Every structure is written in structure tokens, then in C-alpha cells.
Amino acid sequence: MWKTETFSVYDTEQAEVELLTARVNITAPSEVSQYLRAFQEFSRLAVHGAEARALIIAAIDALE
After folding, report:
1. Fewest CB atoms less than 10 Å from the CB: which of 33, 34, 39, 60?
2. Which of 39, 44, 48 is nearest to 12 (CA)?
3. Cα dihedral sign, 21-23-27-31
4. pTM for the predicted model, two decimal places
5. Cβ atoms of residues 20 and 2 within 8 Å
């Protein structure tokens, strides 16, 4: 199953949303700010370095 939406935020004036069948360029300030907030939340939840490696190893181990 595919996730049906991904997005990229280029700056405070533009976000691009990729849907299953189309790509949408967002420039309305209120909508761009929603994508910026979502990006900030994803960034807050992201893990890096040793913590990310531990999660990947745990996922690989769960497959065995």
C-alpha cells in the first residue's frame, strides 16, 4: 500500500504536495504555514545517529 500524500517545504512561501495522481504547488500563506508546522513536528519526532541506528537494527532483528 502506498502512502497517498508527501510534501516538501521550500521556504515560507511555497510547499509542494505530491498526491497519488498529481503534484500540487501551494502558495497560499495560511496553507504553507500548515505544512511548515507539520514539518516542524516531524523534525521534532525524527531521530538521528545512534538512536536511529538502534531503531533500524531493532527492525531488522524483528524480521529474523
Report:
1. 60
2. 39
3. positive
4. 0.75
5. yes
Beta bridge partners of 11: 14
CA-based radius of gyration for the chain? 16
The three-point CA angle 46-14-16 to 5° equals 65
Per-residue pLDDT at 3: 72
For 47-61, the DSSP string reads: --HHHHHHHHHHHHH
Residue 35: strand pairing partners: none
Distance CA 28, CA 33 (A): 9
